[in-house]
Amino acid sequence: MKLLHPLRNLFFLVIIFSILVLPIQTKAATDQGKILVEGLQSPGQYNNFVSLLSAKVAKDAYADNVADAKVLGNLGFKDVQIIKIKDQDMKAIVGVKPLNSYSAVIAISISGSKSVENWTTSNYRVGGEKWYDSSKCSNCYVHKGFYNYISQLIIKEDSIKFPSLNNKTLGSIIKQNTYTSGTPNSRRDYFWVTGHSLGGAAAGLYSAHLSSQAEGVSSKAGITIPKSRITTYTFGAPEFSNNNFNNYYQNKFNYYRIINQHDPVPHINVMDVVYDYLHFGNRLTLSDNAKYSNPFSYHSKDRYISLIANR
């Protein structure tokens, strides 16, 4: 009989937790999701709250399974899934947060490299690749390896399905968000793109892809997704594009490039000097008073999250 008392106490604790604590946690997550949406709907200036959530989602992109990538789910996103990039240890995590019958937030977080090999293999070698949208962006070149990376993601767009949006694919959603001759199509989604390190460079390129076309790999004149509906936050990203590309896309999407002042990666020119690759976007430099013997400690995902959380 004595055993009943601890069990009874445990039972009451579970009831109290369910009544008092869980609703508070649920409300907090709901409030965060609401604040996120408001920030993405007003993307004209840097938003530290959106930046912090972006850094956390960028970290989740490194997860090996959805169960370990909890941030999007906690923010009310549905259909969260991991998209693996062929022949690499890199991946993207995607999810949707429905707002109404014709609008949702589409989250796309691209991982960086888990190994040094990804910076040195043939797919990630230095050198330039002419950007596919050459009819609009003349003499635009990007990093060959990063271009190969996002090309594999673009190929998968028509196979990434979201049951919460009537089983629409990412590819069909992109097409339904475009404007043709100033006439809006059927959807008004907000694209939230983020990534850390190499994934940050890929996120910048993928955002350019979103802003420039909507018909697979070849764009058509007059078809774009408005700048107001593409918001991109990257963390510790290296250079990935030449000056012509940067000038063309500078005002095509809302791009916030976050760097730790001591992080060596954003300052490493991983490109062939022939193409003269440079950074672009709205830069925010984080001050860091920590003293690390290994400079790459300043590049860590958790370091970025901590610095942004304490701004």
Task: Tell me what you see in this structure.
The chain is built from nine helices and 16 strands. With 311 residues, the chain is α/β, with parallel strands linked by helices. It has a single domain (4-309), classed as 3-Layer(aba) Sandwich (Rossmann fold). The strands form five sheets. Strands 1-2-3-10-12-14-16 form a seven-stranded mixed beta sheet, with helices on both faces. The protein has a three-stranded antiparallel beta sheet with strand order 9-8-11. Strand 6 and strand 7 (168-169) form a beta hairpin. Helix 2 (48-60) packs antiparallel against helix 9. The radius of gyration is 21 Å and the shape is globular. Residues 20-27 and 214-222 have low confidence and may be disordered.
What layout of secondary structure does this protein have?
Blueprint (H helix, E strand, L loop, with lengths): L3 H38 L6 H13 L10 H4 L3 E7 L6 E10 L2 E8 L6 H4 L7 E3 L10 E3 H12 L5 E2 L5 E2 H7 L2 E2 L2 E2 L5 E7 L1 H15 L10 E2 L5 E6 L5 E2 H7 L4 E7 L16 E2 L3 E5 L14 H9 L2
Parallel strand pairs: 3-10, 10-12, 12-14, 14-16
Antiparallel strand pairs: 1-2, 2-3, 4-5, 6-7, 8-9, 8-11, 13-15
Helix pairs in contact: 2-9, 5-7
Total number of beta strands: 16
State the CATH architecture: 3-Layer(aba) Sandwich
Strand content: 15-25%
Q: Helix coverage percent of residues? A: 25-40%
Q: CATH H-level name... which superfamily?
A: Alpha/Beta hydrolase fold, catalytic domain
Q: Any idea of the CATH class?
A: Alpha Beta
Basic shape: globular
Strand order of the largest sheet: 1-2-3-10-12-14-16
Order of helices and strands: HHHEEEHEEHEEHEEEHEEEHEEEH
Major sheet: size, sense and barrel closure?
A: 7 strands, mixed
**SS content category:** alpha/beta
CA radius of gyration: 21 Å
If helices are DSSP runs of H or I spanning 4 or more residues, what is the number of helices?
9
Summed over residues and divided by their number, the pLDDT gives a mean of 83
Q: Outline the low-pLDDT stretches.
A: 20-27, 214-222
Number of domains: 1
The CATH topology turns out to be: Rossmann fold
